[in-house]
Design brief:
This protein is α+β, with helices and mostly antiparallel strands. It is built from six helices and seven strands. The relative contact order is 0.23.
Length: 151
Amino acid sequence: MLPRMTIAQRESFLAGAHVGVLGVRDTRPGALEPLLVPLWYVYEPGGEVVVQTGRESLKARLIREAGRFSLCVQDERAPYRYVSVAGPVVSVSDPADPAERAAMAHRYLPPDEAAAYLRSTKDQLTDDVTFRMRPERWRSADFSTFAAELV
């Protein structure tokens, strides 16, 4: 059995600045697996998972069709940890809010890099939408206890 995190631990971990991997059912003819793509996201404990993407992108289309998506985040350093969540889309903001977009860039990049990124991608403000997902299903593991027992 995997060493699960408590509710507080998993929410705190998900709230950290990890690159997430979004998963959504792929309904294109011949598609056998879900679409999986890395992206930035925002989450506050007890809240919703927030992602932004191009309005006309494949992932946006598939999220709209499915009405839900999954997100998995991990710590690639030992001892390994991960959290995955899945749930319904509860709102879509079109176009994306500039302040939310700026906050997300500053979450992942140092201040001067975030400012440069926002300047160089300013056209995305008119092309991006924001999806909010309410986590319903959680999976998590924290191998730190297991790793400590091996020492």
